[in-house]
Amino acid sequence: MPFVSAFRIRRAADILLAGGLITHPTEAVWGLACLPQFPGATARLLDLKQRHPAKGLILVGHSASCFAPLLDPLPASVRQRMLDAWPAAITFVVPDPEGWAPAWVRGSHDSVAIRVSKHSLTSELSRTVGGPLISTSANPSGANPARTALKARQYFGERLDYYLVGETDGASRPSRILDALTGEAFRE
Fold it and tell me: How far is CA 125 from its chain centroid?
């Protein structure tokens, strides 16, 4: 990955911490990101994507510790399988019966989708804000995910607060999404 200045990462983090909405590179595509503690930013993200709130969103962190309240209650074998898989472009859907993730992240589900990113910029952004990000592909629903900053800008123009420069890791497809308990694939 090309060098991205600490200033740019800090700038993106400050915007997120103020309730803003940014785009950033991930493993395969560009993502739209906000912080889960800001329902207004999440609503704005869903509106820009034209995504129904009931579908839920993915939380991406720099470390499994970002998700300790969700991981700790899992059976040891399930938790270990997840820890062995991360960091990677693998998203696990885990039960969230206590409502650790806000309703606007879970959508109509009693579970939440989580990932520990292997993308160095995404990980550093999570580390800088001190927790997980909501991160979803940077495209309107039904359109192809943006694979470049230029494509993200074509989709969203000035409606985003910041475009964090960088490159994807070049993966050919977005993260796999698996049920943590059963291993069933929601997206391969």
Answer: 11
Return the HEC string of 115-128.
Answer: EECCCHHHHHHHHH
Strand-by-strand arrangement of the 22-25 sheet: 162-163, 22-25, 30-34, 133-137, 58-61, 111-116, 90-95, 176-179, 185-187
Please answer whether residues 37 and 17 qualify as being in contact, where contact means their C-beta atoms are separated by less than 8 angstroms: no
What distance in Å separates the CA atoms of residue 64 and residue 62, rounded to the nearest whole number? Answer: 7
SS (H, E, C) 45-88: HHHHHCCCHHHCCEEEECCHHHHHHHHCCCCHHHHHHHHHHCCC
Q: How far is CA 84 from CA 64, 77, 80, 100, in A?
A: 11, 10, 6, 23
Q: Do the strands 176-179 and 90-95 form a parallel or antiparallel pair, or are they unpaired?
A: parallel
What are the pLDDT digits (tens) for 103-118?
999 999 999 999 999 9
**pLDDT tens sequence across 42-95:** 999 999 999 999 999 999 999 999 999 999 999 999 999 999 999 999 999 999
The answer to whether the predicted template modeling score (pTM) of the entire model surpasses 0.90 is yes
Burial 81-111 (b: 16+ CB within 10 A, else e): bbeebbbebbbbbbbbeeebbeebbbbebeb
